[in-house]
Amino acid sequence: MPQPSMPLDRIRLELNDLDKQLLKLLSERRTLSLEVAKSKVETSKPVRDASREQELLVKLIKMGQNDFDLDAQYITKLFHTIIEDSVLLQQSYLQNLANPKLARKPLARVAFLGSRGSYSHLASREYFSRKNTELVELNCAGFKEVLNTVESGHADYGVLPIENTSSGSINEVYDLLQHTNLYLVGEVTLPIEHCLLASSDVPLEQVKTLYSHPQPHAQCSEFISHLKGVALETCASTADAMRIVKDLGRDDVAAIGNSQSGKLYGLQPIKGDIANQTENHTRFILVARKAVEVSLQIPAKTTLIMSTDQTAGSLVECLLVFKRFQINMTKLESRPIMGNPWEEMFYIDLECHLESEHMQAALTELTALTRQIKVLGCYPSENIKATQVKLEG
């Protein structure tokens, strides 16, 4: 006969106890990760050691399978998260050493698009949650206002969306970066989880007007195309769209936004997962009046803009410079130069530290090849690449 199962209450108590032990162990591991960062200050070793990470993950996978009957995919996913946290923690420590004045600032004034609950607002909180910094939040009506608020000194940082995995580049932001004196000092990528929000749990076919920012409209175009007789209204942000729906208080209007943000406005999700792509992410950049010092021990990105001669092969010649110095380019975006018809400005993201030998040599060559070149900023790369391990089976 099968053994009688444990009472549910007892099972839950044991699970609670195990969860507490897990949290304690994770905290202890974080403390040791910080000690690793301190030791790397003395040895000047880089934060990431790919071979060490691979070796560790392979060992953990084998141990988990052989000793604890745990699935390899489960172990890999779990430790990717743990390794990512360790890398970010060490990067933050080294960055604080490189920028002592910023590290001593317990308060940061941050300008972002829209009201509380907008995706820009969520991105600013996500970024600074890693910095143990208290925020003064300044909401703005447009991207230009975000930049103006930082340029005028009323904010220390501005948060701007720059590209989305579904709708692509946000051209208005790229165009504004041509004319600002601000520096790029950071980045954060936020998963975008669009849903349809209304003041009550109304049937989908009852909605006649849909409010949102143009970007979510584009990112949810396939879903919207199946809605019959629905008018689209654009707003400055998803938060403004939610506020409008709340203020109207009608059953025939809805907004596209984040379900958690919708709770701030008393709205209910009536349809989830409406984005064109399941994996929908937006990358945000942080701008400030002063550049940050980036530790040479951490992965960094450099963003620059340049214009080339209007001759055949001029852009290719510039791009070959990056290939020659083995600098990986993660983004190339062209935008028209205002006032110069048919001329383009190229925005380039590079996985390379500005002060590295390769980057400095590449800039020297590019200066001779381009009509104009400007570095917008060098900043820590906070999109941590997962450790690569081949899984069998």
TrEMBL record:
Database matches in PROSITE patterns: ACT, CHORISMATE_MUT_2, PREPHENATE_DEHYDR_1, PREPHENATE_DEHYDR_2, PREPHENATE_DEHYDR_3
Domain Chorismate mutase, residue spans: 2-94
Gene Ontology MF annotations: prephenate dehydratase activity
Lineage: superkingdom: Bacteria
Coiled-coil spans in chain: 8-35
Signal peptide: none
InterPro entries noted in UniProt: ACT-like_dom_sf, ACT_dom, Chor_mutase/pphenate_deHydtase, Chorismate_II_sf, CM_dom_sf, CM_II_prokaryot, CM_P_1, Preph_deHydtase
Stretches assigned to the ACT domain: 303-380
Keywords: Amino-acid biosynthesis, Aromatic amino acid biosynthesis, Coiled coil, Cytoplasm, Isomerase, Lyase, Multifunctional enzyme, Phenylalanine biosynthesis
E.C. designation(s): 4.2.1.51, 5.4.99.5
Catalytic activity entry: chorismate = prephenate; prephenate + H(+) = 3-phenylpyruvate + CO2 + H2O
Pfam families found in the cross-reference section: CM_2, PDT
Compartments where located: Cytoplasm
Main localisation: cytoplasm
Functional pathway: Amino-acid biosynthesis; L-phenylalanine biosynthesis; phenylpyruvate from prephenate: step 1/1; Metabolic intermediate biosynthesis; prephenate biosynthesis; prephenate from chorismate: step 1/1
All residue ranges annotated as the Prephenate dehydratase domain in the record: 109-289
Function, as annotated: Catalyzes the Claisen rearrangement of chorismate to prephenate and the decarboxylation/dehydration of prephenate to phenylpyruvate.
The protein's name: Bifunctional chorismate mutase/prephenate dehydratase
